Amino acid sequence: MSRPQCSRCLRPAAHCLCALIPRLDSRTRVLLLQHPSEVNHALNTARLAALGLNNAQLVVGEVFDDLPTLLNPPGYQARLLFPADDAQPLHAYGPDDQPLLLVVPDGTWRKARKLLHLNPLLAALPRVSLAEGGVSRYRLRKAPGPGALSTVEAIAQALQVLEAPTSFEPLLKPFEALIDGQIAAMGDEVFQKNHGGGHWE
User: Fold this and answer.
1) Using CA of residue 176, residue 166, residue 79, residue 134, what is the dihedral sign?
2) H or E element that contains 106
């Protein structure tokens, strides 16, 4: 028999995170393109980000037929948050800057690259990147390298830069509770053995 589930955060009802999810306004619009394999992942941080931001949209799929519409909301310029040699570092908005539509692929690195491959419009977007050296609070997965963050952390960090001095720290509250809950469920000994010092991709 399946456990009752919260229809909003998709967590088991006994571990619902909705009370911790903020409703933050942002000048930046965030478009999350989620690979279908992530939807039922226990740590669905893209959904937490989409729920916590009023100006955000989460779309699940591999090929997005309505991408031309999604990438062109009036008044925004689209940028892809994804590493590349020519990616421009994010910086705070100037007084006359047009706000960004920050497009964030959500999945493992391999799945995210597949989304770009299957959606040439996405791959053609100018890319932006976060500052080097961000430290993930995601203590449950090994990272492929330093500075690798979970989706919600990457979004919070990007908005923190773009919209300084506004704080987007509340976006990480449900994420941290989620991680703490997962660690508590596995027990400290198992966690230390498998994940001590590990980061995420």
Assistant:
1) negative
2) strand 100-106
- Over the stretch 6-39, which tens digit does the pLDDT of each residue have? 999 988 898 899 999 999 999 999 999 999 999 8
Residue ranges of the chain whose pLDDT lies below 70:
1-2, 133-148, 187-201
Report CA torsion sign: 68, 71, 76, 79.
negative
Would you state the structure tokens that stand for residue 185, as one six-digit string? 């469920």
Matching residue, tokens 């995420």 = 200
pTM assigned to the model:
0.86
> 78 - beta bridge partners?
101
Residues composing the chain: 201
DSSP track, 128-141:
EEPPTT------SS
Helices 173-186 and 188-195: crossing angle, nearest 10°? Answer: 110
Dmax (CA) for the chain in angstroms is: 56
Cβ atoms within 10 A of the Cβ of 148, count? 20
Q: Does domain 24-195 have CATH number 3.40.1280?
A: yes
